[in-house]
Design goal:
By secondary structure, the chain is of the alpha/beta class. Helix content is 57%, strand content 9%. Helix 2 crosses helix 12 and helix 13 packs across helix 14. The chain is globular and about 75 Å long.
Length: 539
């Protein structure tokens, strides 16, 4: 109520003072009080914290280019005799993509007598019958594949991988999630890097099967490209810790055991194990030129589920491993980089605080002219927001030098999407900070690649987010009112920034609520006919 009263009072007072006394006298007539300070101090503290995380993105770009000559290409040596490799395929209710995954594994260019494929199935639906039938079929054709089904999901994905390791025969273990399609040459491109005895894990870059499916998947692809090009590239080239991404990578089997095995007390068991392995001295490699395509989430609810799981898991991992990192004898640069990497999702609750304080801060600072905005706010906004756009522009320039400039069209929406995720990701981060446990929520895979392609899998596996989309729409309305206030008070500088908030919250909210309804309306009576079918049982 006090903020509302200030809004009503100062909106009129602002014009009166400037009209009758001029700008200079107007500024001296205004005096801060304790209420103003109690809002503006945390407002600027939050902006400074976000600016530090933003500046870190610039540092990753700098590391990427500074150490460009250290990029890993061909292995320095080769095995004289190829070792045995186990391929682990952890799945959970993946009936629409499982046949594609196993078919891709059947074409891997590696001696079959040195290859073992484990289908680790925790499914609770008809995927069990589908997967067992596919394994039987390919095993009859000579593929060394075994089907392992658990009657419980203890430990979720980490538990399934650990169960498979108990009977695995390979010296090296590669892992692919259900939505990945490893190319035939993948194992041979990776395995010889382990001829260096100090290498414990090799990660390859994800590409995207359905990048052009929709506007959402285009933005998702750019977000992931930034991670795999500049984050992994900058960290690996400069010799600091980076993480296995849970799939499209290969481990030396004994490294997993030495580091304490797969543990399921965090939702990012891959990052947890990665840090534990590097802390005991093992080296990791990242192969940017070796790629493995995968399917991007096509629905906003699925994308939110994925991002929330990653956000919560990284904070859980930071609480678990950062104390060990800081007590270790690794160099200071590695420790600082580990902090930024594992705590980056703290920016989401900071964004919530910023969202709450933005309107009161505008009201309190109604006297402020463009010079003060340029001197104080502009550098902070440049550090915290422009760093995002430049970060992803550089990643696209590295991957697509001939058409990277098209990324400019996606940048406002890319930043808006990041803002729109703040509600679900803040909830996930707070759960991690307060030790609230939750189940491993997998990302639904629908097996769609081309624009306009439809699937019945969405109706089967679509998730709802309860009241969250309505909260997002309400916050979007709040920022729309903030834009109106900024316009009325001639504070035009802030309007583009505020528009990002409106677009982000409305976009994520509306898609979460109505994307499924829109798909059903668009597909109409042909929905069932054009949808992919799971592999027939018994074939």
């Amino acid at each position: 109520m006090q903020t509302l009263a200030l809004f009503q009072e100062r909106s009129g007072l602002r014009h009166y003072l400037r009209d009758h006394y001029g700008d200079h006298t107007f500024e001296h007539l205004y005096r801060w009080n304790w209420f103003d300070a109690s809002l503006l101090i945390p407002y600027f503290v939050v902006l400074v914290c976000l600016a530090f995380y933003g500046m870190h993105r610039y540092q990753l770009v700098w590391l990427y280019y500074r150490h460009k000559k250290k990029a890993t290409k061909e292995p320095p040596r080769h095995f004289e005799q190829l070792p045995r490799v186990t391929i682990q395929l952890p799945i959970y209710n993946e009936q629409f993509v499982i046949d594609r995954l196993i078919e891709a594994c059947s074409h891997l260019d590696y001696p079959r007598d040195l290859l073992e494929i484990q289908l680790l199935d925790d499914s609770t639906d008809e995927t069990q019958e589908v997967a067992r039938a596919i394994c039987d079929r390919y095993r009859a054709e000579g593929l060394p594949i075994v089907y392992i089904h658990r009657t419980n999901r203890h430990g979720y994905k980490a538990g399934a991988l650990d169960e498979g390791l108990k009977v695995a025969k390979g010296e090296f273990v590669a892992i692919f999630d259900a939505d990945f399609v490893p190319p035939p040459e993948w194992v041979m491109q990776v395995i010889h890097h382990f001829a260096e005895p100090e290498i414990g894990m090799v990660q390859t870059r994800w590409t995207h099967l359905n990048r052009d499916y929709s506007f959402l998947t285009q933005v998702e692809a750019i977000l992931l490209d930034g991670h795999f090009v500049l984050e992994h590239g900058g960290r690996s080239r400069s010799g600091v810790f980076f993480n296995f991404n849970g799939t499209a990578g290969m481990w030396r089997r004994n490294v997993i055991d030495e580091a304490g095995g797969w543990q399921h007390d965090t939702l990012t068991e891959d990052t947890d194990l990665s840090y534990r392995a590097q802390l005991i001295g093992w080296k990791f490699k990242y192969l940017q030129h070796v790629t493995c395509p995968a399917e991007l989430p096509i629905e906003m609810t699925a994308f939110k589920t994925q991002q929330a799981r990653w956000a919560k898991g990284l904070i859980q991992t930071s609480k678990k491993v950062l104390p060990h990192v800081f007590r270790s004898n690794v160099d200071l640069h590695t420790k600082i980089e580990a902090w930024y990497h594992l705590t980056s999702n703290l920016s989401y609750p900071l964004m919530i605080v910023l969202s709450v304080l933005l309107m009161p801060a505008l009201i309190i600072r109604f006297y402020q002219g463009w010079f003060q905005m340029m001197l104080i706010d502009f550098p902070l906004f440049m550090a915290s927001t422009f760093s995002i756009s430049s970060f992803y522009l550089v990643s696209q320039k590295e991957l697509f030098p001939g058409r990277w400039y098209k990324t400019f069209l996606y940048l406002p929406f890319l930043m808006s999407l990041g803002i729109g995720l703040t509600i679900t990701n803040t909830k996930a981060v707070l759960e991690a900070l307060f030790g609230i446990q939750s189940a491993f929520k997998r990302t639904p895979k629908y097996r769609v690649q081309k624009k306009g392609e439809k699937t019945t899998a969405a109706r089967k596996y679509r998730k709802r987010l309860g009241i969250v989309p309505w909260i997002e729409l309400a916050i979007g309305c709040y920022f729309f009112m903030t834009i109106w206030y900024a316009w009325v008070n001639a504070n035009y500088f802030t309007i583009p920034f505020l528009l990002l908030f409106v677009i982000g919250y409305w976009y994520t909210g509306f898609l979460s609520l109505f994307q499924g309804r829109f798909e059903r309306w668009r597909s109409g009576a042909n929905f069932e006919e054009s949808s992919p079918k799971p592999f027939p049982v018994g074939v």
